[in-house]
Amino acid sequence: MIKFYLLKDRELELRDDTYVKKVITDIWDNLPLLIMGDVIFMVFCVPWFIFFLAGLNMLSLWCIVLINPAFAGLMYLAGKIAKGKACNIKDLFFGIYRFFRRALIIGLLTVFLLFVTIWTFKLIEANPEQRWLIIPWVFQLSCLIFMGVLHVHIFPIMTLYDADLKTVFISSIALAVKYKLHTIGMVSLIILMALLIRLIWIGLIIVVPGVLAVFMSNLTLLLMRKYQHK
Q1: d(CA 96, CA 114)
Q2: What is the pLDDT of residue 213?
Q3: Closest of 151, 183, 182, 190 to residue 16, by C-alpha
Q4: Which segments of the chain does DSSP mark as H helices, in order?
Q5: Does the reported pTM lie above 0.85?
Q6: 18 Cβ contact partners less than 8 Å away, ≥ 6 residues apart
Q7: Is pLDDT above 60 for 142?
Q8: At what angle do helices 208-228 and 134-161 cross, to 10 degrees?
Q9: N or C: which terminus of the chain has fewer CB atoms within 10 Å of its end residue's CB?
Q10: What is the mean pLDDT of residues 58-80?
Q11: Do 175 and 220 contact (CB within 8 A), yes or no?
């Protein structure tokens, strides 16, 4: 695990009983900045939308790799907000530059797991008599789901602490395992936000990524403090 550095300013207010209030305050005080960050993030998502709408699902999956650096930039901006540091839209671009390689590797690993899982599933469909293929498929699917859950902590740890990938994964696993309810709660919030976008209003997509980034950054700061003080 990485060392926890006591940060000044508003991070000192972050506790279990103030978490929600602090996150809402962070979002409200920085809403215009977060919306600008979301718009820039959505620009990076355009290739994914184009390929997805065109029915080119495999190509759209590869676009996830390109979206990751943009999300890292948004997370870096959200992290500065969570710490109570002065920030502006330039921080998003700095985050993209600073974490580009690491975010790209995370994206490649995620897409690789996704491709392998889909490929094995297609093998099962084409060869229903080969029931033994179900075992590796279940294992691959489990790894993919676990990787998805780890994303709750992967990007915040990387952008908050400028951690290398080894530290990022070790710390993310440690937090996910030790604080299961917090992690499941954040995953549930992400799913809920996705459903709101899908079922209520697509325009929420201009707000949701930045809001989730602030939630995730504050949660990771809180859990890292709790973990290091144990």
Answers
A1: 24
A2: 95
A3: 182
A4: 19-29, 31-53, 57-83, 90-98, 100-126, 134-161, 165-178, 180-199, 208-228
A5: yes
A6: none
A7: yes
A8: 80
A9: C
A10: 87
A11: yes
